[in-house]
């Protein structure tokens, strides 16, 4: 980065390294810069970088979907309204906000879309189970 501070790949690599060692605030910092650079250059992978940033923000908040992550996921939805990962985390924010029934409705709708073996569906099902347990308490 000293030689080329606008190298998206370097920012992504450093974000990944920090994720692997549990330094999520640093991961967020590098992903934020990668997303900004991708937006400036019209990078076709901008949406994917932004989704990764939102996930990093959730990790940095110890699993909570806070305002910064919601803003990132809203940005992603502006690029691609059907983005399933963003929709999942928006539903998780609803559950974390005290409305597990509302979140379940959003997740059910999400599960009805896309291929049955989509990678994100297991993540959705896991959170649905947690929301059901929350409702039973």
Report on the architecture of this protein.
With 137 residues, the protein is mainly α. Helices cover 73% and strands 0% of the residues. It contains seven helices and no strands. The chain has helices at 8-20, 24-41, 46-60, 67-79, 84-96, 100-111, 121-136. α1 runs antiparallel to α2. The mean pLDDT is 96.
Distance between the termini: 50 Å
Task: Indicate the radius of gyration in whole angstroms.
Answer: 16 Å
| Beta content | under 5%
Count of alpha/pi helices: 7
Give the overall pLDDT as a whole number: 96
> For the report, how would you describe the main beta sheet?
none
Number of strands: 0
Specify the helix fraction band. Answer: over 70%
* SS-based class: mainly alpha
* SSE arrangement, N to C: HHHHHHH
Defining traits:
137 residues; mainly alpha; 7 helices
Helix and strand arrangement:
Layout lengths: L7 H13 L3 H18 L4 H15 L6 H13 L4 H13 L3 H12 L9 H16 L1
Question: In a nutshell, what does this entry contain?
Answer:
The protein is mostly helical. The chain is built from seven helices and no strands.
């Amino acid at each position: 980065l000293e030689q080329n501070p606008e190298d998206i790949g370097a920012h992504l690599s450093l974000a990944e390294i920090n994720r692997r060692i549990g330094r999520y605030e640093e991961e967020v910092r590098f992903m934020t810069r990668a997303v900004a650079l991708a937006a400036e250059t019209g990078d076709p992978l901008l949406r994917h970088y932004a989704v990764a940033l939102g996930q990093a923000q959730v990790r940095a908040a110890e699993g909570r979907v806070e305002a910064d992550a919601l803003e990132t996921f809203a940005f992603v939805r502006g690029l691609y309204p059907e983005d399933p990962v963003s929709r999942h985390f928006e539903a998780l924010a609803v559950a974390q906000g005290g409305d597990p029934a509302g979140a379940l409705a959003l997740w059910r709708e999400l599960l009805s879309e896309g291929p049955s073996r989509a990678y994100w569906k297991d993540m959705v099902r896991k959170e649905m189970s947690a929301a059901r347990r929350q409702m039973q308490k």
